[in-house]
From TrEMBL:
Residues of the AB hydrolase-1 domain: 20-248
Keyword Hydrolase: yes
Domain of life assignment: Bacteria
Taxonomic placement: Bacteria, Bacillati, Actinomycetota, Actinomycetes, Kitasatosporales
Database matches in InterPro entries: AB_hydrolase_1, AB_hydrolase_fold, AB_hydrolase_sf
Annotated organism of origin: Streptomyces lutosisoli
SUPFAM superfamilies linked to this entry: alpha/beta-Hydrolases
Any one Pfam family match given in the protein's UniProt record, by short name: Abhydrolase_6
Identification of the protein by name: Alpha/beta fold hydrolase
Keyword set, alphabetical order: Hydrolase
GO molecular function terms noted in the UniProt entry: hydrolase activity
């Protein structure tokens, strides 16, 4: 049976290293992980899916809760015969990583939580996400993309990185983005879950991230029993693109610590 999700599956031929699974944020697609795929595929299998409603994956209107995203990822990895792996996610992708750990912790050998936070949505946040979902359905993605571009990446970011991020946002189907926003509005609180994580974790954040500030990363680091925190300077919400070399170096060190 063909997988439901579109995905990139690179490297891994003959490698005994744990596969690295990369979960993108909103409103992006798997190409946000291009620097990481290029860096790590020579030595291990790297799998980067397009979440449902994003990229080349099917668009399912309505409401997409984080639990559904996690179920999709589990089904894809079943189809690809990937039993155990390191799981990394940024922003919404980080929250999906937490949901994956809630659903199938026995498969995950390490967690990477980048520019994300574990708390449930506030009443004001729920309204804002649902209002934004209505707006995207009404107006499309471009106005939103123009408004938030320099919060996603810092104003001083490389022009090619900025263009890539804007292109991903404007290419996202509004129906998929709206469904994810409505689902995230109802997400559970993962803070207690983090205290029960039994595998090593890496927490990464851009120093200038306004969406998920350094204080959020510090709180996750404090909650996780075995974690490393790294703050990447001169980066906002997407340090994996804005400062790819530093991000990759930190991730390489974490993977080496896992012993593979």
């Amino acid at each position: 049976m063909a997988p439901f999700l579109a995905y990139e599956d690179e490297g891994g031929a003959g490698s005994s290293a744990l596969p690295l699974v990369l979960i993108h944020g909103h409103p992006f697609d798997h190409t946000m992980w291009a620097p990481q795929t290029a860096a790590f595929a020579p030595e291990r299998r790297v799998i980067a899916p397009d979440l449902r409603g994003y990229g080349a994956s099917p668009v399912v209107p309505g409401v997409t809760p984080l639990s559904t995203f996690a179920e999709d990822i589990a089904a894809l990895l079943d189809e690809l015969e990937v039993a155990e792996f390191v799981l990394a996610g940024l922003s919404m992708g980080g929250q999906i990583v937490m949901e994956c750990y809630r659903q199938f912790p026995e498969r995950i050998r390490g967690l990477v939580l980048a520019d994300t936070f574990p708390a449930a949505e506030t009443p004001e946040g729920k309204k804002a996400r649902n209002d934004m979902a209505d707006r995207l359905l009404r107006e499309g993605m471009r106005g939103y993309a123009d408004e938030v571009l320099h919060k996603m990446v810092a104003p001083y970011a490389d022009a090619e990185v900025t263009a890539h991020v804007h292109r991903m946002m404007t290419s996202t189907p509004p129906e998929g983005a709206a469904a994810a926003l409505r689902g995230r509005a109802e997400r559970p609180d993962y803070r207690e879950l983090l205290t029960r994580v039994t595998v090593p974790a890496l927490v990464v954040v851009g120093a200038d991230d306004e969406y998920t500030p350094v204080s959020d990363a510090q709180a996750m680091h404090a909650a996780l029993p075995d974690s490393t925190l790294h703050v990447i300077g001169s980066a906002a919400h997407m340090p994996n693109l804005e400062r790819a070399e530093e991000f990759n170096g930190v991730l390489a060190g974490f993977l080496a610590r896992l012993g593979d």
